[in-house]
Amino acid sequence: MGKWKRSQAYADYIGFILTLNEGVKGKKLTFEYKVSEAIEKLVALLNTLDRWIDETPPVDQPSRFGNKAYRTWYGKLDEEAENLVATVVPTHLAAAVPEVAVYLKESVGNSTRIDYGTGHEAAFAAFLCCLCKIGVLRVDDQIAIVFKVFNRYLEVMRKLQKTYRMEPAGSQGVWGLDDFQFLPFIWGSSQLIDHPYLEPRHFVDEKAVNENHKDYMFLECILFITEMKTGPFAEHSNQLWNISAVPSWSKVNQGLIRMYKAECLEKFPVIQHFKFGSLLPIHPVTSC
Q1: d(CA 173, CA 104)
Q2: How would you classify this enzyme at the top EC level (predicted)?
Q3: Which of 40, 60, 72, 166 lies at a 20 to 30 A Cα distance from 239?
Q4: Which helix (H) or strand (E) holds 168?
């Protein structure tokens, strides 16, 4: 773990997360932003994954969770991942495709355990980070990376989780932030910084969530949790309930970044599956 925390991969990954965090600060999902051809192609790739879910309905089976049809769906991605990535990466960068495709395959859950968690989410962020490193995505794509691509990724993952009743990977029960995701809470809280009237206490208010979830990732996450879980919010999502008492969104945002490092990036069960290569190398940070 020490090697990972000192690695170029860790520095690049966390730098990427924080750059995007800064990019979406105070902006609604409905904000006008530039959508490049690469962004359009990434959305098309995610639409393909979505279509495959429709083409692979769950099978009848005795156990309620972990529908085995997920393995069929995953098998299709396993086979097609490089072709899909090749649609996004220009031909002169084709040599990077096999390495980048690995992160895409890692980002949709585990086909043996039929589970999904923050490690898989991190693989998708690493996938986007690699696309930035090879120059497919550029600095002015920042907002679209979060609002268009990552948001579409979340929709597809939620559909996977619901359709195949996926288990949360390495869940900390009520002590985790959420069974499946973390990054949309970070970027979503950044969106809400300096909001004229929505404060952290409002996200436990059903009316505020229903009226504003289309503008803010954070509230979209809350809505999904309340759809999936029954009972009092304070019981099924204790950590989030505690966060609603924090006075400002910037404090929430800083706290979540600290929590993400401690609870996700510095936990062996999450990071043990992280892949290293020429784009995200394990060697120590080279000082400029």
Answers
A1: 27
A2: isomerase
A3: 166
A4: strand 167-168
The crossing angle, in degrees rounded to 10, of helices 118-133 and 183-191 is 70
pLDDT digits (tens, 9 = 90+) for 206-225: 999 999 999 999 999 999 99
Residue located via tokens 């990724």: 153
How far apart (Å, rounded) are the C-alpha atoms in residues 176 and 170? 10
| DSSP result, 51-69 | HHHHHSPPPP-SSSSS-TH
- CA gap 96, 237 in Å, rounded: 40
Which of 192, 155, 184 has its CA nearest to residue 17?
A: 184
Report d(CA 190, CA 184) in Å as an integer: 10
Asked if 159 contacts 50 with a C-beta cutoff of 8 angstroms, the reply is yes
Tell me whether strands 115-116 and 167-168 are parallel, antiparallel or unpaired.
parallel
